[in-house]
Write a structure and sequence with these properties.
single chain, mainly alpha, 0% strand, 1009 residues
Length: 1009
Amino acid sequence: MDEVRVVIAAGCSDANLQNKAGRTPLHEVAAIGDQNLLKIMFKLHADANMHDKDDRTPVHVAAEKGHTSSVEVLIDKFGGSIRARTRDGSTLLHIAACSGHTSTALAFLKRGVPLFMPNKKGALGLHSAAAAGFNDVVKMLISKGTSVDVRTKDNYTALHVAVMSGKASVVETLLGAGADVHVRGGELGQTALHIAASLDGPESRECAMMLLKSGGQPDVAQEDGETCLHIAARNGNKEIMKLMLNENANAQIKSNSGETPLHVCARSCNFEAAQMILNHLSEKLSPEELKGYANQRDNSGFTAIHYAAEITANMIHYPGEDAKLVNLLVDYGGQVELQSLNTNETAMHMAARSGNQAVLLAMVNKIGAGAVQIVQNKQSKNGWSPLLEACSRGHTEVAKILLQHHARIDVFDDQGRTALHLAALNGHLPIVHLLLQHKAFVNSKSKTGEAPLHLCAMNGHVKVVNVLVQDHGASLEAITLENQTALHFAAKYGQLAVSQTLLALGANPNARDDKGQTPLHLSAENDYPDVVKLFLKMKQNNRAVLTAIDHNGFTCAHIAAMKGSLAVVKELMMIDKAMVIQAKTKTMEATTLHMAAAGGHANIVKILLENGANPEDENAHGMTALHLGAKNGYVAILEAFDKGLWRRCSRKTGLNALHIAAYYGNSDFVNEMLKHVPASIRSEPPIYNHHVVKEFATEYGFTPLHLASQSGHDSLVRMLLNQGVQVDATSTTMDWRGRTPLHLAAQNGHYEMVSLLIAQGSNINVMDQVPLCFAAANNHIECLRYLLQQKHDTHLLMEDRKFIFDLMICGKGNDNEPLQEFILQSPAPIDTAVKLSALYRDMSEKEKERAKDLSNVAVFSENMAVELLGIAASEYNAAMLLKAKDNRGRPLLDVLIENQQAINDMNNTSAFKQNTQIQKEVVSYASVQRYLTEIWTARVDWSFGKTLAFSLLVFMCPPAWFYFSLPLDSRIGRAPIIKFVCHIVSHVYFVILLTVVVLNITHKMYKFI
């Protein structure tokens, strides 16, 4: 208190000042619980609701310490909140309960702190008190109404929590209050008894005993199928196991993984626990049943002796426990020779893998020499015997034991490798010596032709190499199926020391594999400059080594540049710079610069250019180094090339790097180039055609937008269209054939690209062949459908016989959908359908190979015309339809009649019948009949009798016939029925005249002969 007064006197009167932990002076005073200091802090207006880093207020601190009077002062005078909660969601009641302050907890309850408010874990004050072991608080909270079986988020009750904390007195209280011992909690669905089985010590034993006496079931399984006996066995809890076995716990129950408690004992190396289980079962089972239990398999087919065999030294609890466990299992009938289901491994495999000599000796001594011979030579699924396991992992003593018992040394695994292969592969020199002493074949080969020397060379085991070659005569020229020697392997994997050793021992550095590669090629390919330097030093004056090519025509310089081996390239250039720079591959005519640029190795590109490499050299496909970098999108190489080269076009393709990058959709590369090259730049005519470059041999005038559209790169096209300052880089720019980007997008079926370009203002009606023609010609249905929905010239398209034919081809496998869409999207669907029918009829006569298909679409068009006319006639005036004129000014009725005449001229009987039927169907509509009647009568509304009288008048009175036959400009004169009557009378007059002339008997015809 005096110290506080001194601080105040010094002028430090800020009572709410916080330290690094966020605590104020009031927090500290609340922890002390001094009433006088609280009064001083009150005068200084200290805030009782200030939070520290754990969101604890001074009220929480006072509650934790059990200062009930201080709590009341802080709440009543300082205005401290009783609702405040800590970072983990604990209320004041939680704090008081877990601190064991019953009176403080009661004070909070009286002031209205919620009894059932959970924290973040879903725990109430009851759980907190039970975990801390405060029995009085537990009793008080239960008496105030807290349910004894209330659960947390993880479904743990207070009983679970108390057992977990080993609070036996609280467990007794909870059981006395009626706690349910069968409630499951946690992810595994544990009961309180499961938790007790997982703990050790007298408290857990006492808890388990109380739970068992209160009805706890030892054979109830968790979600993973494990019972209390499994759990106790894993932890070696002998006291708990005794309790469980005394309660007749079933030791034969299997978990979900198929493990019995005996498996768990063996896996955990708990000899006493295993002994306890087997002794217990020996009183209940027959010897055969007990043997069956000892050999029970889990889901993987492993028995308890398998798990005992893989015990390592750090798992045993005292010396010799592992051997005792194995002896115990064998004594109770455990069979060492049993193989697992998935891997076919025996217990000896497991012992050899773990390197446990004691376990292996125990098995060998127990089963006898004859059985050992059988078991130790059994192979697992991958072909490994126990000896191969031991040799692979370097367990020399285990290998000795197996060899002493005559383990076969010539066992091959599924890859054809022997124990010597595996020992050499992993560099286990003592085992290599041991195997060779037992007559292992030093040059034996695997299925891929690898000898032990190859494998130790690959992993850099120099000592093993020396032993194999010098001491045991391993062949340096032994080759694999790919014709690779041990030196190839050493060079391929960058083993410098082994390479030196092999060369010193006489290995051939010029040996070639089946790809024509020498060790030098392989070291260059995999970027091992030190190994490359080693080979170059040996042959420094032999240029043939540098110019040697593999089957692909690559020198080591090409390979190094392709793989990005900068150090190797530098070493090679020190020997022969001209060879490195000028050498070209056979087929592609590529230089090292091409290779480096194609791989995006900017550092190598820069060095090659600095040393005189020609950046304008083209490969067989017309690609320069910059073109190849653009093709693969390597922006980093751009800075290595002069800006003037950025615009340079290939002599074989006419394309520059920007065109190539756009064609392959490399947006970043294009974006970088656009800083110095305009987006409107066009490709140039190729200077000469090349037999390799076919796609662009005769094409030019492309902009980057053309090429990006042709390849369908949406994002790149958007970027090019947004190059606003480049006026020519619009979507309407044409190549030398007049094709826009839209044409190329449609030709290649890029639907999204087509829609994007049209949205940007592309005209679909430019050029003789519009994009619709390209889409139809290449059978791109989706693009065709989209383009048909745009504004287009139907009449112009119908004049293009190829487009009409392609439209039929597109529709053949799609129920004529494109043709139907074309008709419906046209300005006059009926007119279009009628004309298409006639066109297809005409084409069917000329295209004999596709006559049937063309006739079918002609019928389809005719049917559409009928249906459309019927629909239109039912909704609108038929006169308007039949009088409607096409683009040439012909009424629809005339078109129908004209098509009928065309079919007659074709003398096509089936077509004539079909068209006649269609005309009948058209005429059958009442509105059409009314219109045709009006045309026929020209509104001369005469009755039948009057019409008949007029016909007789014209016939009987030739002047009347002559008068009405004249082209009179009157309603009656223009009426078709009047003209028809006059026409009939004319025929009658003509017949009468002929009859009179022929039958006139006043003149004898023979006189004229």
